[in-house]
Amino acid sequence: MTIPFIEPFRIKVVERVKLTTEEEREAALKKAFYNTFNVPAEDVFIDLLTDSGTNAMSDRQWAAMMQADESYAGAKSYYRFERAVQDVLGFEFVLPTHQGRAAEGMLFSTLVKAGQFVPNNRHFDTTQANLLVLNAHPVEFTIPESEDSSLIAPFKGNMDLAKLEQFIQETGVENIPIGMITITNNSAAGQPVSMDNIRQTSEIYHKYGIPFFVDACRFAENAWFIKIRDPKYKDVSVRDIVHEMFSYADGCTMSAKKDAIVNIGGFIAFRDPELKQRIAQNLIVHEGFLTYGGLSGRDLEAVAVGLYEGVDESYLNYREAHTRYLGEVLRQAGMPVYMPTGGHAVYVDGGKALPHIPPSQFPAVALGNALYLAGGVRTTEIGSLMFEHTDPVTGAPIFAPLELLRFAIPRQVYTRSHLDYIGEAAAKCMRDADKIRGLKIAWAPKVLRHFMAKLEPVD
Ligand code: F0G
Q: Which of 98, 265, 281, 408 is the most buried (most CB within 10 A)?
């Protein structure tokens, strides 16, 4: 297998990591109540829990941080950050927040009332939770093809346009204060959304006068997929693709911890100056003054540089190929990989990998734990531990459409030999797959239960 790609950077600073023994990992997992969120990072050899905030920054980002202005109001760093958002994304107004979920919280608490509905192709867990705490209803219309983990199609993250429009007509526009789309579609295996689909989603929302916001965490990876998978965009630059994607929207929420390649930061960007005034009230109470929003000047500088580095095409070419390579390695190790691989992560179909474990016993969590035991590799479940909920009418459990195990790749952190090592751990784990046991919940909080749940192996 040859996939032509090479890291378009070299390494200047390293962090030592330690490989523990299988016995040590077994003890660590038990102490963590079989939930790897509770395992100390020191006991993890390769950490693919998330690509969020786990990135290695560049020399230019670190250099910019040294020049930061830490003034409370009107810092030079804020204006550099604002210019980068205007230039790369094309929105005139921006408010910084400490991370993506704060941006969602500020936007929703300003626009959404209890009992109202917010459609999306698929909400991420924090987006969903930010609506639930307002007693509003997150609703989702990703195309059904996304639920087939072996179907090869270019844009499986797309919105189901017919279902979206039908929902708007049946629910009434007065009950839908804002409409969203998430690019790439993290909860649907990191699949991209096509340009046509973004435009048509925008047309539907706008036909009914609903403001359209993009959850933009991985906008650069989405733009790269449009370039390599939609022949119409093969000769269009990523910078132009990004501008076109956002030209259809009224604004976006952003976790800079992803495609702005930083460790902390986020923002809300939009075109409407009146909305800025309305959100500003909230922002000052919860995050900070308008020109820092919970971030230091150093953080704003890192985002300003990272936004440009995140849309660099040689970087994006490497990024997609690096992720695809991990997909190949895992397939060769016998894992049922969700196809095609996403931008920031490889997703494995835990339900297919462990058919003897039902969704009620969280097969993807069980697979992730087995992988941790096999090689100290930490991943995360995007399945029923994260998304199971109760049918409001019948009270029956509704499980996630797929029991996925996500291998999220921090940006610019791991080399190809790290990926090969993950393949070896995966092969070891799959050799004894039929011995892996399911899990049950010993304790869990009501909202975002996967972060803190205590689990036990089923007998
Ligand atoms: N939207 C999407 C699509 C996300 O993936 C995330 C975070 C957020 C919003 C919230 O951003 O973490 O900065 O508050 N996703 C991380 C993940 C945590 O692991 O996928 P945040």
A: 265
CA atoms of 107 and 214, how far apart (whole Å): 12
Residue after which a domain boundary falls, among 285, 310, 335: 310
Residue 162 domain-assigned (yes or no): yes
Strand, coil or helix: what is 251?
A: strand
Spell out the alpha helix ranges (H) of 116-160: 125-132
Ligand 1 centroid – CA 52 distance (Å): 7
Task: For residue 115, give both structure tokens.
Answer: 């009992």
238-259 pLDDT, tens digit each: 999 999 999 999 999 999 999 9
Strands 212-215 and 251-255 turn out to be: parallel
Collapse the DSSP code of 56 into the 3-class scheme (helix H, G, I; strand E, B; otherwise coil) and give the result. Answer: coil
The answer to whether residues 192 and 241 touch, using CB atoms and an 8 Å cutoff, is no
Taking only the tens place, the pLDDT of each residue in 110-151 is 999 999 999 999 999 899 999 999 999 999 999 999 999 999
201 within a domain of the structure (yes/no):
yes
* 99 and 163 fall within a common domain: yes
Distance 83 CA to ligand 1 centre (A): 24
CA distance 132 to 386: 14
pTM of the model: 0.96
- Quote the ligand 1 centre to 458 CA distance (angstroms): 30
Nearest to 246 by CA among 201, 285, 186, 277: 201
